Amino acid sequence: METVKFKTTIKCSGCVATVTPYLNEAVGENNWQVDTQDPNKILTVNTNDTAKENEVIQKLQQAGYKAEKI
């Protein structure tokens, strides 16, 4: 399984709650986490499908957040 990291605009636990249904739909429950303590608010996604990278970015945009692969 590959780990992909994104710099995001997810700032707090409320933001995480907002994006949860979107990310669960994109990559599945328990396949992602956000480090809100990191200054770059790093989203880590575990996936076997590199095509999911664009889907993660799109889902976060639908939820009102930005993500950039790092």
Automatic annotation (TrEMBL):
Name this protein carries in UniProt: Heavy metal transport/detoxification protein
Superkingdom of the source species: Bacteria
An MF annotation (GO) of this entry: metal ion binding
Residue ranges annotated for the HMA domain, each copy included: 1-68
